[in-house]
Write a structure and sequence with these properties.
alpha/beta, six-stranded parallel sheet, 6 strands
Amino acid sequence: MSRILVAYFSASGVTKGIAAKIAAELGADLFEIVPERPYTKADLNWLDKRSRSTVEMKDRSCRPGIAFRVVDMEKYDTVFLGFPVWWYREPSIIDTFMESYNFDGVKVIPFCTSGGSKIGDTWKNLQELAHGATILAGARIPARASAAEVRAWAEDHL
């Protein structure tokens, strides 16, 4: 039984690919953070100030619903947490995820995907949402990272 969970939200499939590599390389469990109401292409249009994602990201208190829960979250002592970078931080659905569980004593290792934005101070935001957790700074992982590169990065953070 794995004590490592790779939880991720992926809007376009890029983050899903990296999450799957991490889980496969570490023998970890994999969990997709699925929104209760799926995002459409129009919802994700960051150029539209009225798009769902833009509205959510402007409201720091926004907490989009999640369709499924992690079973037995308490069995994990390490969680790799993946997401695309939206507006220079984690998407609001990641905030929902972090507030949905008790992360006391858990090491959380964020990773993001992005065309160019870095992960920034996301770890500070996550720390505020998960008191008692150890949140590492994390990193942006390129979409084309090899399994060996992903494994090396993940193992360096365990």
